[in-house]
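Researcher: I'm preparing a figure for a lab meeting and need a structural model of a single chain. I don't have an experimental structure, so a prediction will have to do for now. The sequence is pasted below. Please return the structure as tokens so I can convert it later.
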Amino acid sequence: MLKEKLRKYNIILASKSHRRKFLLKELGLDFEIRTKDTDESFPKKLKGKQIALYLCKKKAEAFKNELKSNDLLITADTIVWI
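Model: Understood. Here is the structure written out token by token.
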């Protein structure tokens, strides 16, 4: 059902993560992997999940001038917060 709903989109995984690749494959989705080296520094005022959200947006920004209207870009970031 999910694959059918997303069939009109070109799904792009913007991650080198083997785990994220595995998850999309397990969902039965067709996708391509495209990555860009992105500076992962962030403002020191950010805390917890704000950091991951900031970095996801930063990674997506790197693709903004090359995406088509039917492209669905997936970015992600993981942090450990103690």
